[in-house]
Structure formats: C-alpha cells, structure tokens
Amino acid sequence: MESINRYFQIKESGSTIHREFIAGLTTFFSMAYILFVNPQVLGAAHMDAGAVFTATAIATAFGTLVMGIFAKYPIAIAPGLGVNAFFAYSVVIGMKVPWQTAMAGVFVASVIFLILTFFHVRELVINAIPREMKLAIAAGIGLFIAFIGLHEGGLVVANADTVVALGSLTVPTTWLTIFGLLVSFILLIKRVPAAIFIGMVLTSIVGLVTGLIKAPHAIVSLAPSLKPTFGQALFHIGDINTVQLGIVVLTFLLVTFFDTAGTLVGLAEQAGFVNEKGEMPRVGRALFADSSSMLVGSILGTSPTSAYIESSAGIAVGGRTGLASVFTGIMFLLSMLFSPLLAVVTSQVTAPALIVVGVLMASSLAGINWHKLEIAIPAFLIVIGMPLTYSISDGIALGLVAYPITMLAAKRGKEINVVMWVLAVIFLIFFYVLNR
Q1: Membrane-spanning residues where (predicted)?
Q2: What is the C-alpha end-to-end distance of the chain, expressed in Å?
Q3: Which of 274, 341, 265 is nearest to 307 (CA)?
C-alpha cells in the first residue's frame, strides 16, 4: 500500500486509496453506457456489434490504464460520442465508404496524432490557450454534460416547434431521474462523501424495486470475439487514396484533437491541476495516452477514442490521482465478463450524476472577467456553443475564432500569441471542411 501511495502521490494530493477507488468506480458507472451505445452506432455501419463491444472495452481499458499509470491523472479514455456517429452515418453510410476503409482512416489519423504528440505540438497548443478561455471551456463542458444528462434522463426532449422542451412527467423513468437528482443534490449539500456515487446506487435500487429497471438475466457471460473487426484497419490502409478520404482523415484528426484538448483542459481546471502559469503538468503524457489508445482501438475495431468528460464525476467525488483511472480501467476489463450487470446502470441512473457535475463545473464561470467584452464574447461563445452544437470541438472553435478578432478590436493584439492565430485559421478550415 505504501508503494502505491508513494507512486501516485496520493497523500500529497489530499486523497486516499479508498477515495480513489470510489472515484474510479463512479467514473466507470458514469461512462459504462459507451459499451452499449458504441456497438449500436457502429452497428449501423454494418460492423459486428459483439466485436465492437469487446473492442470498446479493451481500447477504453488500455487508454485509461495508460492515463492512470503513465500520466497519473484521474481521467478516462474511451471511443468518443459524436465522432462515432460521424464515422458510421457520415463516412460509411453517407459517403458510402466501407467501414474497413474508414477504420483505416482512423488508424492513419492516430499515427499522425502520435507524431504530433512526440514533437509536443499538442502540448504547445493546450498551454497556449489563455487562462480565461480554459475556464470557459471547463464551464462549457459542464453545461454540455448537464444537457446530456437532462436529455438522457428524459427531462429535456426534442421539439419540432421549440427545438427542445420539458419532457413528459407522466413517463415513470423520468421520475427515476428526478429521484436520483434530488437525492444527489441533498447528499452533496450535506457534504456526504461519494454523494454522486451513492445517488447512483440508490437510484439503481429504486429502479429495480419498482420494476423500472429490469433485473439482469445473468451475471457472467463470455466476451464476444474480436475476429470480425481485428486488424481490418491495417489491411485497408492502401484504400486511403482519394481527396475525399484525405478529408475524412483530416476530420477525424481535427475533431478528436480538440475534443481531447478541450476535455483535458476542462477536467484539469475542475480538479485544480492547472498551475500558476495556466499550464497542465504532464499534459504530454496525457496526450500520449489518448493517441496510443486511438491507435490500439483502430486495430481492434472501434472509432476514435478521446478523454471522457464523464471523468468529471469521479473527480467530483474526490479522485485526484492516476489510481482512480487504474480502477476505472480494471472495471472495463472486468465488464467484458459481467456485461449483463451493466444493464442495471441505465441512462436514468447516470443522468443525475452528469447534471450534478455540470453544476459543479459551472463554477469556472466565476473566474472569467465578464466586464471585458474582448474576453467575455469568445468565452460566452465557447460556453453556449458546446451544448447548443452538441460538440466540444465546435464550441471551442466558435470561441477561438472570435478571440483574436475581439482582442484586436480592444487594441490588445500584442497579447495574442502565434499559436492562437494558427488555431483561429485551423478552425475556420475546420468549419469549411465539415460544412462542405
């Protein structure tokens, strides 16, 4: 135990092994849905759902363990939502690209990622983002995941007339979300340790007792075979030979680059990892965990991975070291054998956790100087852009394109570093590519 404490510097971080375990478990349950959502999304691209389930579990465990052991951060990595939909619906179905070729595109993008990480390009970009823009990113992610929680829990639904609307309170499962939310809020206000995790457990129990959550039909099952997807990316690299597929690779690169960058910045702000210079220590190692996971995932047969915003749930219950990620990674490995039990943790169980974490992350708004419009305008675009575009990278793009313009208008152009100018140009290209 002492060696674990020493390696992860648990005492110095003000945490305990027990707290890190609870944090790792909370993060796992908050993002376990990806084990079921990813096979559904990629299944639309005619990929074998069972193989994708196993590939998702292994790639997530690999990236999260590397993040925990090597980068020593309580941040999990898994196939990203949004980019998996782009893979399935835009590339495979829309462009009629075989999924094997699309997976080869993910592999090529991941190799480029590793190269950029090796030369510290990604680290340079993250550290160049101004402090107040980082605070806006953290708050924006908070609103984004709260919106996801409200939608997944049935409290906010799509509406043809008003875009979104309050969900129906006659739906029993929506009341399960409300129960979990109220319990979590009360426990947090009472400062009960692991309040979010306890809220999830109590919500699951209520769901089982009332029949709103079906009891699992089994406890243990063997993991599905990887054979249908394993190695297909390597066999089809030669298919990346057109401008269209080059754009696909570029899009994978841009979306995952800034999704991960934004998430890392937001989580680092939430956990207090950002130093006095506004930099995130060991960010290069964190980015290596991300890019290597994406590489491994493409070979196994899953869409691009990225740092997961649900890690904020684990951070919120006290996770401060890489040991929390180690526990999360182990849980994903075990989940391949106990997949029937994961069905108990429904979206109504995880939704309250996401909403609560959104409340906690919104506190970053207090650190932004709203009286300086040259700062307030791009910060606001980032904060509001993430939930309204349903994309972390799009929200960041809106704000960082506006930033140099507003700073120039305020005659503060000398404060804009070269990297921020480059980012603004890249994001303009990014918008052009995605909207062609």
Answers
A1: 21-37, 49-70, 77-95, 101-121, 133-151, 163-189, 196-223, 243-267, 321-344, 351-370, 376-403, 415-434
A2: 55
A3: 265
